[in-house]
Amino acid sequence: MNADVLSNCLEQAIPIVREAGKLLHDRVCSSSIQEKGKTDFVTAVDTAVQYFIRERLQKLNSSIQFMGEEQDNSSIEPDRLTWILDPVDGTTNLIHGFRHSAISLAMAEGEQVLFGVVYDPFSEELFTAQRGHGAFCNHKPIHVSDVQTLSDSLCSVGTNPGSREQADAAFRRMRAVYDHCHDIRRIGAASIELCYVASGRLDGYLEHGLRPWDFAAGKLILEEAGGKLTDFCGSAPFLYADRSDIMASNGHIHADLRFLI
Q: What string of DSSP letters covers 194-210?
């Protein structure tokens, strides 16, 4: 896909995501809950947002595949153009009225994310990036922090409550980072946390067992803002892997984070 066509897709996707964001304010639908697992939930908002966005994206271009959290994605062909959607990143936050949830939408081809959109309707912040064109929040350029050392950093460490068998390891990582930085934060929505690193509000973020829709858009936004994202071993995570362990930073503290974990 050439740059002009890609830019046009991005411009068309943004108002669709913004419109879908209104659904996250519906407290009745967010209280309609089904359990996918003991700590993994889906609300009527999740399914409504996914249906709304999928239908409109397919009208734009029906030849582009669609991967969404609330569907079977077994037929996805990784080498083809693919929309990757998390309709509500931070569903548990939404259920509890903890106003940190976002819609995360990316377009990818193979292992390369071409553009990403993360919209938090509660803060009314729209984070966007197109590969090679920088990263933005509400159309203003953003960049990672210039913090040089872990000892001067503010970091976020995720717990992934859906993988509680790894809780001991997750909290050991959290303690290790906590002992070497200013403090720890935990938002509960990977896409937002990646965008906060991209905009310099956080200096680092790590979490185990993330799905592609959790980090696809945030990955590009972070990288276009000058940051770095790898797995815990320092390699690029596979975009279409079932689960990935993610370590994100402003780049300067990346080696120190990797050493700790």
A: HHHHHTTS-SEEEEEEE
